[in-house]
Amino acid sequence: MSSPLERETLLVAKDYVGFCTGIRQDPPSESAKAMRQLAKQTERQHRSTFQTLVQNFLDNSEPDFLTSLKQTMAALAHDGQLNWGRVVALFAFAGMLASELSSRGVDVSNRRLAETIARYLSEEHGEWLLHNGGWVGFLSFFHMVRGADLGLFLRNAFFAVSVASIAGIAALLRPGRLPLGSLLRLFFA
């Protein structure tokens, strides 16, 4: 990671993953602090759905869950419509994943997980991030939604993460595992 955008993306990702796995320290930047607030609020509002997504992800992922996470993240902007709400929902999903892995005693490297998220966002969506003001733009989004009904901003983002998770899980399904139709009914019934 070499550009200021890449460094800040990694900083926000490391802080959030660490925060979700119980590392208690002050946020290293205003964008990290804002991500903690928005992603945790998103998680609280959609806890049961996120728990189901994480459980299905873990049940159907490769032994190296980071490979599976990359595939799931790649489906995030499957429609070419990335936005800050989707980024927040991605962090909420990744935070719950890290927390669940930690609670199961799985040796999860917070740094590797954060690097995977940061690399994906920087390499696959770096132009979008820059075009939308980088993490300063995220802070503008945060201040805009903080005083408004966050649910209005996150509905589409949450739907996109659900679809991305289903698409990622579908790519990972092995013969004899949960059929895709069952997954679709689970999320869209």
Overall pLDDT level: 80
Coarse morphology: globular
Radius of gyration: 16 Å
Which second-level CATH architecture applies?
Orthogonal Bundle
CATH topology: Apoptosis Regulator Bcl-x
Work out the number of β strands: 0
Q: Supply the helix-strand structural class.
A: mainly alpha
Give the helix proportion (percent range): over 70%
* CATH class division: Mainly Alpha
Proportion of residues in extended strands: under 5%
Number of helices: 9
**N-to-C CA distance:** 42 Å
Q: Gist?
A:
Belongs to the Bcl-2 family. The chain has 189 residues and is mostly helical.
Descriptive overview:
InterPro entries: Bcl-2-like_sf (IPR036834), Bcl-2_BH1-3 (IPR046371), Bcl-2_fam (IPR026298), Bcl2-like (IPR002475), Bcl2_BH2_motif_CS (IPR020726). This is Anti-apoptotic protein NR13-like. Belongs to the Bcl-2 family. Keywords: Apoptosis, Membrane, Transmembrane, Transmembrane helix. One of its GO terms (molecular function) is BH domain binding. It is a single chain. This protein has one domain: Apoptosis Regulator Bcl-x (Orthogonal Bundle), CATH 1.10.437.10. It has 189 residues and is an all-alpha fold. The longest helix has 23 residues, at 150-172. The protein contains nine helices and no strands. The model is unreliable at 172-189 (pLDDT under 50). Helix 1 crosses helix 5 (84-103) and helix 4 (65-74) packs across helix 8 (150-172).
